[in-house]
């Protein structure tokens, strides 16, 4: 079935991203991919293959050096920082490895923060359902520091779902969770796709988590090397084992510390100066 532009939730066209430094690294090398509305896609690949960079560029948290990124029909490059911040608050949800919870706010306040910032009034029944599904009903008055890693991850997931964003970007959403909680969270993500027509793009290393997706896209050395519809956990694991037998990828530059709640803050406008490019050996 052909996908029309109205069916596309997120698109990256010929996207290229290079990180500067003494040895510049091509993190995304002419990436061309569309994520259809109402679908879940897992983005997989070896460490350093560009998964987080793809997510950050797709979500408007980082600007590519070349190429076009669209959320729906909105071209992110044409947006001012203010409008980009509004778009991230209103149309996009994030679940990151570092949680990005606000330490001074309790669980309930953290969950409702994106609604407050985008001046939306969340549907109380939906908030209650999300809180119930992530199993946080008895922790609403706790601060993040009083929660386990898995509980903090669940707060981040609830926070991403409450505003019913068009697209939810997740970076290892189940990384800190035990198997049962991970299954609950993945079912919840699956249900917002199936019942609410939202779109999920999820970076994961876990073939089981990826098997909840409709599609698995595999990156290696900043390029898409596999694009598989519903491959199942076993086939995913086989592909990853094959990629894992490649030489490890050098990580020449350390990533700067994650800024405080970056998706809710204005874009830092970090642009990489043009530099000669050295391709990594794959
Ligand atoms: N801010 C940065 N400055 C310099 N290099 C960076 C920066 N962020 C990422 N890189 C480099 O870009 C490449 C892609 O990184 P990215 O984090 O996107 O990979 P990944 O597939 O998400 O890795 P992992 O699975 O380990 O999280 C890596 O070689 C990494 O070292």
Automatic annotation (TrEMBL):
<keyword id="KW-0067">ATP-binding</keyword>
<dbReference type="GO" id="GO:0005524">
    <property type="term" value="F:ATP binding"/>
</dbReference>
<feature type="region of interest" description="Disordered">
    <location>
        <begin position="250"/>
        <end position="282"/>
    </location>
</feature>
<dbReference type="InterPro" id="IPR003439">
    <property type="entry name" value="ABC_transporter-like_ATP-bd"/>
</dbReference>
<dbReference type="InterPro" id="IPR015854">
    <property type="entry name" value="ABC_transpr_LolD-like"/>
</dbReference>
<dbReference type="InterPro" id="IPR027417">
    <property type="entry name" value="P-loop_NTPase"/>
</dbReference>
<dbReference type="Pfam" id="PF00005">
    <property type="entry name" value="ABC_tran"/>
</dbReference>
<dbReference type="InterPro" id="IPR017871">
    <property type="entry name" value="ABC_transporter-like_CS"/>
</dbReference>
<keyword id="KW-0813">Transport</keyword>
<feature type="domain" description="ABC transporter">
    <location>
        <begin position="10"/>
        <end position="246"/>
    </location>
</feature>
<keyword id="KW-0547">Nucleotide-binding</keyword>
<dbReference type="InterPro" id="IPR017911">
    <property type="entry name" value="MacB-like_ATP-bd"/>
</dbReference>
<protein>
    <submittedName>
        <fullName>ABC transporter ATP-binding protein</fullName>
    </submittedName>
</protein>
<dbReference type="InterPro" id="IPR003593">
    <property type="entry name" value="AAA+_ATPase"/>
</dbReference>
<feature type="compositionally biased region" description="Low complexity">
    <location>
        <begin position="250"/>
        <end position="276"/>
    </location>
</feature>
